[in-house]
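Sat 14:20. Reprocessing the chain from the morning session after the first attempt stalled halfway. Input below, unchanged.
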Amino acid sequence: MPLSIKYTDDSLARISEHVLLLKGSTNIGVLAVPERKELYLIDSANDDYTVENIVDFLMTKFSGYSIKAVMNTHSHADHCGGNDWLVRNMGCEIWCPEGEASLMEYPIIEADLIWGGTPVHELRSNFLLAKPCKVDYVLKEKFSISTEKLESPFEPESTETEIQIEPVPLPGHYLKPAGFLITDTDGTKSFFLGDAISGRNVLNKYWIQYLLDESQSKESIRKVAETEADFYIPGHGDMVTEIEGLAELNMLAVLETENLILDALKSGPKTHEEILKEVADRNGIRLGVSQFFLIGSTIRSYLTGLYEEKRVAFKLVNNQMKWELAKKKEEPQKDAPGGSGTEAQLTI
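Finished this time. Tokens:
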């Protein structure tokens, strides 16, 4: 049985009038609406044991409240692994971005995606596979939660009694993740980022971050950096009030991994696994089974991005796919002075 995280008073930080952060290995957003005695969670951690611990802790702080819904940033198990328990035990609803719903209902797709077929049983642990859960609402547009005692929490935006929530598409880390930009009734803006950006302390430990689409990941980092908020909360790592430096560090991690791959190919063509080994060795990573496939999948995504940018190429050699640096195109030769044809015109 996995050990649950013990949450304490220090784990809970108030961001604004109705928004709090429950700090942990996966950060959990908490919207507390005392007028309605309701809680709304942003993500649900990774398994039954952890989310039960979360609920026990929150109920000591918010006695008599119900958990109305979970808003998931994306469908990775460490962000939605507690959904099933919350539905069964708390009767709450599940809300998530468009494109992630089918993956929550059929989580085996994640392991299939990483493996590239039916996965070995080592990839079917709760580290990668959340329990299936039905999604009640797909979040596409900006919406609001009323703090008044009304029948429905969904109300038209624009009054001082509404918490406004904007799902912000942040693809790249996975298929269709979204961050949640929340404007509280007191005007404070908090941006829950999911895994589009990681905290500095997390990058120090895991410099190579899992991603599915490198090009989109870079665009999402730029989007986060350009979005105004008072607080920025990564899915893993410390909350910050200034995002530029953290966004630059996340971009640097991506670009450095690009350069590692390109550097590995300077000595000649290599297979994907040979590139993976060199990148892991140079980062001091000892690959376990899960890391072998997670980082291996990430390296493939980088190779696709570099291939689309025409910086690498591939060829099939003896039934192996070999990657190599793309050959630079030679610039066409200019005509010699005084001539307009392919040969210089000589004047005597």
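The chain has a mean pLDDT of 90.
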